[in-house]
Amino acid sequence: MAMKQSEWKEFFVALREGLRQFDVPVVTRMRRDLEDSPFVTLISCILSLRTKDEVTAEASVRLLEGRGTPRQMLELSQEKIAELIYPVGFYKTKAKRIHEISEMILDRFEGVVPETMGELLELPGVGRKTANIVMVYGHHQHGFLPIDTHCHRIPNRLGWIRTKTPEETEYALLKVLPEEYWDEFNDLFVTFGQKICVPISPFCSRCPVDNFCQKVGVRKHR
Fold first, then answer.
1. Do both 165 and 73 map to the same domain?
2. In CA terms, which of 39, 50, 124, 155 is 20 to 30 Å from 73?
3. If you write DSSP's letter for every residue of 124-191 in order, what string do you get?
């Protein structure tokens, strides 16, 4: 679905206003509540995978408060990290990854979280979504689009694109979504997908951008 510049502006103004009542996603919240640093963003993002926001937030505070650098993290054993982050999903695997990532950042990158996509993707357990989040929200770099399940599902539902995987969605959106909205896209669409445009029976009756939506694949809504 091709939209004019004025329509993109109208869409994002309406979406921001409609989501104002809700808190920001957990990774952004951790930057506000703990420390706005690439390492905090990276580790809280890893903790958030397949884990509810409330659990992620509590685990992030337990683990990262006073430990905002790889060197400080490595003062903990892998077992202690697992203890602190429990009950996040796959907490033992994540504890191992966090320990390995901290070691690799110290050994290969002089203690500094990598500032390129290629180097971030070399870190254990870091995929494109996490790397893009670190680039946008950790390093405050422009030109990147973090895509999670909500960011993949909703643009397809809206009719903007026709893609089958998050990676396809990333590249498709880079072509159609005006760059001025890239930085806020993940925060907005994660909140939107959690609170209103849910996977099954979305709340179309209270959707701030319902008039823009083609409702592709929506069989029932509220």
1. no
2. 50
3. TT--HHHHHHIIIIIS--SS-----HHHHHHHHHHTS---SSHHHHHHHHHHHS-GGGHHHHHHHHHH
Residue 163 in domain: yes
Rounded to whole angstroms, the Cα distance separating 100 from 178 reads 37
Half-sphere exposure of 78 (CA within 13 A, CB side): 11
Boundary of a domain, candidates 119, 138, 157: 138
Q: What is the pLDDT of residues 102-117, one digit of tens each?
A: 999 999 999 999 999 9
**What average pLDDT does range 188-197 have in this prediction?**
97
pLDDT at 1: 62
Within 8 A by CB and 6+ apart from 191, the residues are 19, 22, 23, 24, 25
Does the reported pTM lie above 0.90?
A: yes
Using an 8 Å Cβ cutoff, are 131 and 117 in contact? yes
Helix (H) or strand (E) holding 80: helix 78-85
- Pick from 97, 119, 94: nearest CA to 108: 119
| Distance separating alpha carbons of residues 66 and 48, to the nearest angstrom | 19
How far apart, in whole angstroms, are the C-alpha atoms of residue 99 and residue 119? 17
Specify the DSSP class assigned to residue 111: T
Q: Identify residue 152 by its one-letter amino acid code.
A: H
